[in-house]
Design a protein that fits this description.
By secondary structure, the chain is of the alpha+beta class. Helix content is 34%, strand content 23%. Helix 3 crosses helix 11, helix 7 runs antiparallel to helix 8 and helix 9 packs across helix 11.
Length: 400
């Protein structure tokens, strides 16, 4: 917990936490985390994508490698635990093994991914995508808010952008990847459970809808003759909610804009976003199709034209059955109730699933609050999380 506080002080903003990719704060954070890795008995290095690594060698030098970790970057105005807690917990688990002189027939590598949030350049999972062999060199042309390209930021950080692909561990002998993360939701707290095993990471699709009606004078156009784009959008928002509840998915209209946006003018055009997620892609896609058909019908009745385009799509990622089972056994070994739940948020495990089995443990957080300074966890829960993660490492090997 003290280490979480210390990393919170490595920030680019006054009075808050902000640590983004390829910045001086990123460099300072890596330096501090690698010091702790070395104290835990690991050899350390920074890879070509800026991720920091600790290597705890096993007794079989040709053995497989189990990966543990999460991310060290933050959103602007972040909390202290999202991502960070998972990296520090992994270090502490290795430190326990080191203090006992325990080595396994496999290696353990702890990774602090450099960019999961995408706060600086707008593209997410950059660190883990590089490790998973999913790096796209076109990303280097992306620019931050100051006009600095990612390629330029690499050079300033002391890395060669042409070598990012060498970070890939695709094809390596990997035993799996474990990630401990705060839940970022209220389920565990509502059930009074400190920890749960993640079943799947939800796939998300996002669309932008544009509704075109007719603007007109608010006082002179009769109600029966209006083509109110905002009124149609309001019906669409209610439709989204109803379909999501019936289908068992989550869907959110997070932004809505109206033109001309004047108090005495009927809205002639309206745009709104839709974010829809589920741990089952087919279920999510059926719900989305129903929403689109429903909005089409609603707008037709309202004499409002509607178009939409998809602006994001990511497939759901199921956590590996053998790691879910290892997590369940780990909970039982620590005297905790076995409970599984899906993740509605994206995580580095999504990228890592391209090259190895992934497993995740969720830790409850107060009120489900995340990406906010009020992000909070209980120290007693963290202590349990360390025990469970340690047991999960052992269970992963014993039932490999």
């Amino acid at each position: 917990m003290q280490r979480c506080e210390l990393l919170a002080s490595i920030t680019a903003i006054e009075g808050g936490i902000c640590r983004t990719y390829l910045t001086e704060e990123h460099r300072r954070c890596n330096r501090q985390v690698m010091q702790w890795m070395r104290e835990a008995g690991m050899e350390t290095h920074t890879d070509a994508a800026g991720n920091c690594w600790g290597h705890y060698a096993g007794s079989d030098m040709d053995g497989q490698t189990l990966l543990l970790g999460s991310h060290l970057d933050t959103v602007p105005g972040a909390g202290r635990y999202d991502g960070i807690l998972g990296v520090l917990a992994a270090i502490e688990v290795v430190a326990r093994f080191h203090r006992r002189g325990r080595r396994f027939p496999f290696h353990i590598d702890v990774v602090g991914f450099a960019d999961e949030e995408g706060s600086r350049f707008g593209a997410t999972l950059l660190g883990s995508r590089a490790v998973a062999g999913l790096w796209d060199s076109a990303l280097l042309a992306l620019c931050d808010a100051e006009g600095v390209s990612m390629a330029e930021a690499f050079v300033e950080f002391g890395l060669d952008p042409a070598k990012v692909a060498t970070t890939s561990r695709a094809g390596a002998r990997l035993l799996g990847y474990w990630e401990l993360h705060i839940e970022q939701g209220p389920v565990l707290e509502e059930l009074d459970l400190p920890l749960g095993v993640v079943s799947a990471i939800a796939g998300a699709r996002r669309c932008l809808f544009t509704l075109q009606g007719s603007a007109g004078h608010a006082g002179t156009v009769p109600m029966t003759m209006r083509r109110d784009a905002l009124l149609a959008a309001a019906g669409a928002v209610q439709l989204v909610d109803a379909v999501a509840r019936r289908c068992g998915v989550v869907a959110t209209v997070g932004n809505i804009e109206v033109w001309p946006g004047v108090v005495n003018v009927i809205p002639g055009r309206c745009e709104f976003t839709l974010d829809i997620r589920s741990g089952e892609d087919q279920l999510r896609d059926r719900a989305l199709a129903e929403i689109i058909d429903g909005i089409d019908a609603l707008c037709d009745r309202s004499q409002v034209a509607v178009t939409y385009r998809e602006i994001h799509s990511a497939a759901a990622v199921a956590c590996a059955a053998r790691l879910r089972e290892a997590g369940s056994r780990a909970l039982a070994r620590c005297g905790l109730q076995d409970f599984s739940l899906p993740s509605g948020a994206g995580h580095d495990a999504m990228a890592m699933a391209a090259i190895t089995d992934v497993g995740m443990l969720f830790l409850r957080c107060a009120g489900g609050v995340s990406h906010h300074p009020e992000e909070s966890v209980d120290a007693a829960d963290v202590a349990l999380a360390l025990d469970v993660l340690e047991a999960a490492v052992e269970e992963t090997w014993e039932h490999a």
